[in-house]
Design goal:
By secondary structure, the chain is of the alpha+beta class. It has helices spanning about 70-75, 130-140; strands spanning about 5-10, 15-25, 25-35, 35-45, 50-55, 60-65, 85-90, 95-100, 100-105. The strands form 2 sheets. It has a 5-stranded antiparallel β-sheet with strand order 1-2-3-4-5, with no helix packed on it. It is globular and about 50 Å long.
Length: about 150
C-alpha cells in the first residue's frame, strides 16, 4: 500500500472555493476556503472525535508538531499567527495563546511559553477571554492539566 500524501486540495470549476485536506499527528484536518478566506476547519481524530471551528467566530488554532521553542519562534516570523490565536504543542502538553509577541501558556506544561500571573480570562482586562475559552477546550480534549494560576475561581 502506498503512503498517502500529507496534503490534498480540491477546487471547484471557476476557483471560487477550495477544500484542503491534510493528515497530521493521527488526525485529518479539512479546511474550506472561498476567495482566499478560510470558512471552516473540521478535524477528525483517530478516536473519532470531530471538531468544527469557524475561523470568523474566534481565534485561529495553530498546532505545532515540534517543541514549544519552535512554536515560539514561529509566532515571531509567521504572518498567519496573530494576536489572540491559540497555540497547541501536543508533544509537550502545552496549550496557550499569543499576546502580541508573547506566547502565553494556560497549561501546567509551558515549555518556552510565558506563564500567567492571573487567570487567562482576566489577562489584560479580559481581552483574551475568547482565546482562553478555546485554549481551555482544547487542553481538556487533550487531557492537559491547566496551570494553577490559570484556574478560574468561583
Amino acid at each position: 500500500m502506498s503512503e498517502q500524501s500529507p496534503t490534498s486540495t480540491a477546487s471547484c470549476e471557476g476557483g471560487s472555493w477550495q477544500l484542503k485536506v491534510r493528515h497530521e499527528e493521527g488526525r485529518v484536518v479539512a479546511e474550506v476556503w472561498s476567495f482566499g478566506v478560510k470558512l471552516s476547519i473540521t478535524t477528525l481524530s483517530t478516536e473519532g472525535v470531530v471538531t468544527v471551528e469557524d475561523p470568523a467566530a474566534g481565534p485561529t488554532v495553530h498546532r505545532f508538531d515540534g517543541s514549544a521553542a519552535e512554536a515560539y519562534d514561529a509566532t515571531q516570523c509567521r504572518d498567519d499567527i496573530r494576536d489572540g490565536d491559540v497555540l497547541v504543542v501536543a508533544a509537550e502538553g502545552v496549550v496557550g495563546f499569543l499576546d502580541a509577541a508573547w506566547p502565553i501558556a494556560i497549561t501546567e506544561a509551558h515549555g518556552e511559553f510565558h506563564g500567567l500571573k492571573v487567570p487567562a480570562r482576566e489577562h489584560k482586562d479580559g481581552r483574551f477571554a475568547a482565546s482562553a475559552e478555546v485554549a481551555e477546550r482544547i487542553a481538556a480534549e487533550l487531557g492537559f492539566p491547566l496551570a494553577a494560576r490559570h484556574v478560574q475561581t468561583a
